Amino acid sequence: MPNRHPSSGVPLNDFALVSRALDFGAEAIVAPMINSPADALLFANAAKYPPLGERSWGPLRAMALQSPRTAPVDYMREANDGTLAFAMVETAAALACVDTIASTPGIDGLFVGPYDLATALSGGSAQDVHAAQVDQAIDTICAAAKKSDKIPGIYCRDAESAVAMAKRGYSFVIAGNDQTTLRAATVMQLKALKS
Known about the structure:
50% of the residues lie in helices and 14% in strands. By secondary structure, the chain is of the alpha/beta class. Helix 7 (114-121) packs across helix 8 (132-147).
């Protein structure tokens, strides 16, 4: 699908919103707290058309945005490859079965929320994304994704961390968010104005 449209996160266990977001035109969905193979299968079923899943039909807006000249039957045939389902691995339970989650048909990638992962692995006592167990988990998740030929993804607070994660094998890397990016740009502008 030539035009890329944004990804969408969905609320915890709200898999009904998955197909709706795809119908609205999102081309990637990130689902939080995929803690088991059963969670991964439910998510994939909502994100993919048969034979991979059970997504219901209704992508009129998505078809207009992504492939306006494509016939509905062609869109349905291409949509499973043209839309991505990322399972977030952010708990000890998910980490324990990460290989099975990654190998679930219809799951296109694994996505790490390092702050949630750090919180979960520390039992809620810290959000140290540089702790040894978090660092090891980040490598384990990337390896599981690659082993199943899936996309390894991760959130990073800044560009420097994003570059480091890309060097470790992550291919879908988010470098900050709107708020932190805007804040950093504003700080630089204020410094320039004051000098």
